[in-house]
Design a protein that fits this description.
With 225 residues, the chain is α+β, with helices and mostly antiparallel strands. The chain has two domains: 158 residues, Pnp Oxidase, Chain A (Roll), CATH 2.30.110.10; 38 residues, no CATH class. The chain has five helices and ten strands, in the order H-E-E-E-E-H-E-E-H-H-H-E-E-E-E. Strands 1, 2, 3, 4, 5, 6, 7, 8, 9 and 10 form a ten-stranded antiparallel sheet that branches. Helix 4 packs across helix 5. The longest helix has 14 residues. The radius of gyration is 21 Å and the shape is globular. 22% of the residues are buried. The mean pLDDT is 95.
Length: 225
């Protein structure tokens, strides 16, 4: 019955007994690249080679000005010594959170490889020039969608979204290039810590963290699992 309490229903999945034994590998200090971003690039390459679906997908965590957290999955579209970049509607809920606090956290969840990477730190808005360079690589449909969607706002139904996309397509039908919307841009997370997590048997996982010290240097630390 739909209204029957969960505890009274016949359970077909025993969550308490669901468990995976992690035997895919190990992570030692000697295995690490010299910098966090080189290590992240290395693991991204490994994820691509392993056929992980959307290896650049990452969970973005933010909090609003009341401390209420939110998470969502976004795509990494830039990586260098300055940080990790994603692109979004600059009026979205996530951007309001980022504007309120100035900080974010990221997780790359490569579950199939028994690996995770956790980054946290302050954010900055990417320059319009860099945003334009990325914008020009996007498919036309994705560009039109950026114009059509007032991200995170309440809409009456799916029809309203489809209509907005058709209107955007008609608006720019004669344009060879869809222009960059003023409300759309990139955000860079500038890590002050970057943890690389490798699953190991018996919950004795390897956790190695690059942490930026007060003098701007980076220190590698091993964390207890």
């Amino acid at each position: 019955m739909p209204d029957e309490p969960l505890q009274q229903r016949q359970q077909t999945i025993d969550l308490a007994r669901m468990r995976v034994i992690y035997t895919s590998g190990a992570l030692d200090e000697a295995d690490l690249a010299g910098t966090w971003y080189e290590q992240l690039a290395r693991w991204l390459d490994n994820a691509v080679a392993a056929g992980v679906p959307e290896p650049n997908a990452m969970v973005l965590a933010t909090t609003d000005d009341n401390g209420l957290p939110s998470t969502r999955t976004v795509l990494a579209k830039g990586l260098d010594s300055r940080g990790v970049v994603f692109y979004t509607n600059l009026t979205s809920a996530k951007m309001r959170d980022l504007d309120a606090t100035g900080f974010a956290a990221l997780t790359f969840p490569w579950i199939a490889m028994h690996r995770q990477v956790h980054l946290r730190g302050p954010i900055e808005v990417v320059s319009r020039q860099d945003t334009m360079s990325y914008w020009q690589t996007r498919p036309r449909g994705a560009q039109l969608g950026a114009w059509a969607s007032a991200q995170s706002t309440v809409v009456p139904d799916r029809h309203a979204l489809d209509t907005a996309l058709r209107d955007a397509a008609a608006r720019f039908a004669g344009a060879e290039q869809v222009p960059l919307p003023p409300h759309w841009g990139g955000v860079r997370i500038q890590p002050v810590s970057a943890e690389f997590w490798q699953g190991r048997p018996d919950r004795m996982h390897d956790r190695l963290r690059y942490r930026r010290t007060d003098d701007g240097q980076w220190r590698v630390e091993r964390l207890a699992p």
